[in-house]
Automatic annotation (TrEMBL):
Domain of life from the UniProt record: Bacteria
Domain Prokaryotic-type class I peptide chain release factors: residue ranges: 125-141
Identification of the protein by name: Prokaryotic-type class I peptide chain release factors domain-containing protein
Organism, as annotated: Candidatus Yanofskybacteria bacterium RIFCSPHIGHO2_01_FULL_41_27
Annotated SMART domains: PCRF
SUPFAM superfamilies, per the entry: Release factor
Length: 247
Protein backbone atom coordinates (compact mmCIF):
# COMPACT_ATOMS: atom_id res chain seq x y z
CA UNK A 1 0.00 0.00 0.00
CA UNK A 2 2.81 2.40 0.91
CA UNK A 3 6.42 2.68 -0.22
CA UNK A 4 8.72 2.11 2.73
CA UNK A 5 12.28 3.24 3.16
CA UNK A 6 13.83 -0.15 3.96
CA UNK A 7 17.01 1.54 5.22
CA UNK A 8 15.24 3.47 7.96
CA UNK A 9 13.32 2.09 10.93
CA UNK A 10 11.50 3.80 13.77
CA UNK A 11 11.94 2.08 17.14
CA UNK A 12 9.59 2.68 20.07
CA UNK A 13 10.07 1.22 23.57
CA UNK A 14 7.37 1.49 26.26
CA UNK A 15 7.67 0.34 29.88
CA UNK A 16 4.80 -1.88 30.98
CA UNK A 17 3.72 -3.68 34.13
CA UNK A 18 6.42 -3.65 36.79
CA UNK A 19 6.81 -0.04 37.98
CA UNK A 20 10.37 1.22 38.40
CA UNK A 21 11.74 -2.17 37.37
CA UNK A 22 9.82 -1.99 34.09
CA UNK A 23 11.17 1.49 33.41
CA UNK A 24 14.70 0.20 34.00
CA UNK A 25 13.94 -2.77 31.73
CA UNK A 26 12.78 -0.41 28.97
CA UNK A 27 16.09 1.45 29.22
CA UNK A 28 17.98 -1.88 29.03
CA UNK A 29 16.11 -2.80 25.84
CA UNK A 30 16.83 0.61 24.34
CA UNK A 31 20.52 0.08 25.07
CA UNK A 32 20.37 -3.45 23.56
CA UNK A 33 19.09 -2.14 20.24
CA UNK A 34 21.60 0.70 20.31
CA UNK A 35 24.41 -1.83 20.78
CA UNK A 36 23.02 -3.96 17.94
CA UNK A 37 22.94 -0.93 15.65
CA UNK A 38 26.56 -0.17 16.55
CA UNK A 39 27.55 -3.75 15.71
CA UNK A 40 25.90 -3.31 12.30
CA UNK A 41 27.49 0.08 11.69
CA UNK A 42 24.02 1.69 11.59
CA UNK A 43 23.02 5.16 12.68
CA UNK A 44 21.00 5.29 15.92
CA UNK A 45 19.36 8.53 17.10
CA UNK A 46 17.13 8.88 20.15
CA UNK A 47 14.56 11.47 19.12
CA UNK A 48 12.54 11.51 22.34
CA UNK A 49 12.64 10.02 25.85
CA UNK A 50 10.22 10.27 28.74
CA UNK A 51 12.17 9.44 31.89
CA UNK A 52 10.99 7.57 34.96
CA UNK A 53 11.89 7.91 38.61
CA UNK A 54 15.21 6.02 38.77
CA UNK A 55 16.78 7.04 35.43
CA UNK A 56 14.74 4.39 33.64
CA UNK A 57 12.40 5.38 30.82
CA UNK A 58 8.64 5.39 30.51
CA UNK A 59 8.96 5.46 26.73
CA UNK A 60 11.45 6.35 24.02
CA UNK A 61 11.47 6.73 20.26
CA UNK A 62 14.48 6.36 17.98
CA UNK A 63 15.51 6.49 14.35
CA UNK A 64 17.71 3.68 13.02
CA UNK A 65 19.45 4.09 9.67
CA UNK A 66 21.23 1.24 7.91
CA UNK A 67 21.02 -1.17 5.01
CA UNK A 68 17.83 -3.22 5.46
CA UNK A 69 17.21 -1.84 8.96
CA UNK A 70 13.43 -2.16 8.86
CA UNK A 71 13.34 -5.60 7.23
CA UNK A 72 15.88 -6.94 9.74
CA UNK A 73 14.23 -5.51 12.86
CA UNK A 74 10.51 -5.68 12.05
CA UNK A 75 10.09 -9.01 13.88
CA UNK A 76 11.23 -7.45 17.18
CA UNK A 77 7.87 -5.78 17.72
CA UNK A 78 5.99 -7.16 20.71
CA UNK A 79 6.19 -7.60 24.49
CA UNK A 80 9.56 -8.49 26.04
CA UNK A 81 9.64 -9.99 29.57
CA UNK A 82 12.49 -9.77 32.10
CA UNK A 83 12.88 -11.96 35.22
CA UNK A 84 15.62 -11.00 37.69
CA UNK A 85 16.45 -10.07 41.27
CA UNK A 86 15.22 -6.50 41.46
CA UNK A 87 18.01 -3.97 42.09
CA UNK A 88 15.27 -1.75 43.56
CA UNK A 89 14.10 -4.30 46.14
CA UNK A 90 15.51 -3.89 49.65
CA UNK A 91 14.79 -7.58 50.26
CA UNK A 92 16.40 -8.70 46.95
CA UNK A 93 13.17 -10.20 45.69
CA UNK A 94 12.73 -11.70 42.24
CA UNK A 95 10.75 -9.43 39.96
CA UNK A 96 9.09 -9.76 36.55
CA UNK A 97 8.97 -6.73 34.27
CA UNK A 98 7.46 -6.08 30.86
CA UNK A 99 8.20 -3.65 28.04
CA UNK A 100 6.68 -3.20 24.59
CA UNK A 101 8.81 -2.75 21.46
CA UNK A 102 7.30 -1.31 18.30
CA UNK A 103 9.11 -1.17 14.94
CA UNK A 104 7.82 1.01 12.11
CA UNK A 105 9.21 1.86 8.67
CA UNK A 106 9.59 5.45 7.53
CA UNK A 107 7.36 6.30 4.59
CA UNK A 108 7.15 9.01 1.97
CA UNK A 109 4.96 11.67 3.67
CA UNK A 110 3.09 12.54 0.48
CA UNK A 111 1.48 9.10 0.49
CA UNK A 112 -0.78 9.96 3.43
CA UNK A 113 -3.24 12.83 3.03
CA UNK A 114 -3.58 14.69 6.33
CA UNK A 115 -5.90 17.62 6.92
CA UNK A 116 -3.65 20.16 8.63
CA UNK A 117 -6.57 21.34 10.77
CA UNK A 118 -6.57 17.84 12.32
CA UNK A 119 -3.12 18.41 13.80
CA UNK A 120 -2.45 19.96 17.21
CA UNK A 121 1.05 21.16 18.10
CA UNK A 122 2.31 21.55 21.67
CA UNK A 123 5.75 22.76 22.71
CA UNK A 124 7.65 21.99 25.89
CA UNK A 125 11.16 21.98 27.29
CA UNK A 126 13.30 18.89 26.75
CA UNK A 127 13.80 16.87 29.92
CA UNK A 128 16.49 14.54 31.18
CA UNK A 129 16.72 11.83 33.87
CA UNK A 130 14.99 12.83 37.08
CA UNK A 131 12.71 15.24 35.26
CA UNK A 132 15.11 18.17 35.11
CA UNK A 133 14.84 20.43 32.09
CA UNK A 134 17.88 20.32 29.84
CA UNK A 135 16.86 23.29 27.70
CA UNK A 136 15.62 26.68 28.86
CA UNK A 137 13.62 27.12 25.64
CA UNK A 138 10.53 25.16 24.62
CA UNK A 139 12.17 23.52 21.62
CA UNK A 140 10.59 20.07 22.04
CA UNK A 141 7.43 19.50 20.01
CA UNK A 142 4.49 17.11 20.28
CA UNK A 143 2.14 16.74 17.32
CA UNK A 144 -1.21 15.00 17.81
CA UNK A 145 -3.53 13.74 15.08
CA UNK A 146 -6.77 14.78 16.77
CA UNK A 147 -9.20 12.30 15.11
CA UNK A 148 -7.17 9.23 16.14
CA UNK A 149 -5.26 10.56 19.15
CA UNK A 150 -1.98 9.31 17.70
CA UNK A 151 0.84 11.57 18.94
CA UNK A 152 4.56 11.95 18.32
CA UNK A 153 6.98 13.93 20.49
CA UNK A 154 10.46 15.00 19.36
CA UNK A 155 13.21 16.68 21.34
CA UNK A 156 16.40 15.64 19.53
CA UNK A 157 16.81 18.61 17.20
CA UNK A 158 18.19 22.00 18.22
CA UNK A 159 15.32 24.16 17.07
CA UNK A 160 11.56 24.03 17.49
CA UNK A 161 11.12 24.17 13.70
CA UNK A 162 13.39 21.14 13.19
CA UNK A 163 11.60 19.17 15.90
CA UNK A 164 8.23 20.07 14.38
CA UNK A 165 9.33 18.86 10.95
CA UNK A 166 10.68 15.60 12.36
CA UNK A 167 7.55 15.02 14.48
CA UNK A 168 5.27 15.41 11.45
CA UNK A 169 7.47 13.09 9.39
CA UNK A 170 7.27 10.34 12.00
CA UNK A 171 3.53 10.93 12.49
CA UNK A 172 3.01 10.09 8.81
CA UNK A 173 4.75 6.75 9.37
CA UNK A 174 2.66 5.91 12.42
CA UNK A 175 -0.57 6.78 10.65
CA UNK A 176 0.41 4.79 7.54
CA UNK A 177 1.23 1.73 9.64
CA UNK A 178 -2.08 1.99 11.51
CA UNK A 179 -3.94 2.29 8.20
CA UNK A 180 -2.33 -0.90 6.93
CA UNK A 181 -3.05 -2.77 10.16
CA UNK A 182 -6.69 -1.65 10.06
CA UNK A 183 -6.89 -2.43 6.32
CA UNK A 184 -8.32 0.97 5.46
CA UNK A 185 -7.50 3.15 2.46
CA UNK A 186 -8.54 6.52 3.86
CA UNK A 187 -7.24 8.19 6.99
CA UNK A 188 -10.79 9.15 7.93
CA UNK A 189 -11.59 5.44 8.39
CA UNK A 190 -9.11 5.06 11.26
CA UNK A 191 -10.65 4.86 14.70
CA UNK A 192 -9.38 6.61 17.82
CA UNK A 193 -6.31 5.01 19.34
CA UNK A 194 -5.67 4.25 22.97
CA UNK A 195 -2.29 4.05 24.66
CA UNK A 196 -0.27 0.85 24.11
CA UNK A 197 -1.84 -1.87 26.24
CA UNK A 198 -1.50 -5.55 26.99
CA UNK A 199 2.10 -5.13 28.16
CA UNK A 200 1.88 -7.98 30.64
CA UNK A 201 1.58 -11.75 31.11
CA UNK A 202 0.51 -13.96 28.24
CA UNK A 203 1.46 -11.69 25.38
CA UNK A 204 5.27 -11.73 25.43
CA UNK A 205 7.29 -12.69 22.36
CA UNK A 206 10.57 -13.18 24.23
CA UNK A 207 11.67 -13.82 27.80
CA UNK A 208 14.99 -12.80 29.36
CA UNK A 209 15.61 -14.73 32.59
CA UNK A 210 18.55 -13.65 34.77
CA UNK A 211 17.47 -15.52 37.93
CA UNK A 212 17.19 -18.32 39.10
CA UNK A 213 18.89 -19.46 35.87
CA UNK A 214 20.11 -17.57 32.81
CA UNK A 215 18.25 -17.92 29.52
CA UNK A 216 16.79 -15.86 26.72
CA UNK A 217 14.00 -17.61 24.82
CA UNK A 218 11.96 -16.46 21.85
CA UNK A 219 8.46 -17.88 22.28
CA UNK A 220 7.64 -17.77 18.55
CA UNK A 221 10.69 -19.55 17.14
CA UNK A 222 11.93 -21.52 20.17
CA UNK A 223 15.43 -20.07 19.75
CA UNK A 224 17.33 -19.88 23.06
CA UNK A 225 20.55 -18.41 24.41
CA UNK A 226 22.12 -19.28 27.79
CA UNK A 227 24.03 -15.96 27.67
CA UNK A 228 21.57 -13.12 28.32
CA UNK A 229 24.44 -10.74 29.05
CA UNK A 230 25.62 -11.05 25.45
CA UNK A 231 22.09 -10.72 24.08
CA UNK A 232 21.58 -7.54 26.10
CA UNK A 233 24.82 -6.23 24.59
CA UNK A 234 23.25 -6.49 21.15
CA UNK A 235 24.04 -10.09 20.13
CA UNK A 236 20.69 -10.62 18.40
CA UNK A 237 21.74 -12.21 15.12
CA UNK A 238 20.43 -15.74 15.66
CA UNK A 239 17.11 -14.45 17.01
CA UNK A 240 16.68 -12.14 14.04
CA UNK A 241 17.61 -14.87 11.55
CA UNK A 242 15.02 -17.22 13.08
CA UNK A 243 12.39 -14.45 13.09
CA UNK A 244 13.06 -13.81 9.39
CA UNK A 245 12.36 -17.45 8.56
CA UNK A 246 9.31 -17.49 10.82
CA UNK A 247 7.56 -14.48 9.26
Amino acid sequence: MFNYDKKRALLYVYSGAGGVDAQDWASMLLRMYQRFAQRKGWGFTIVHQSFGEQKGIKNASCEITGDGAYDILKGEGGVHRLVRISPFSAKSLRHTSFALVEILPEIIPQEVKINQSDLRFDTFRSSGPGGQNVNKLETAVRVTHIPTGIAVAIQSERSQAQNKEKAVQILYSRLAKKMEEAKVKELSELKSETAPGGIEWGSQIRSYVLHPYQMVKDHRTGIKSPQPDKVLEGDLEKFLAAESGHQ
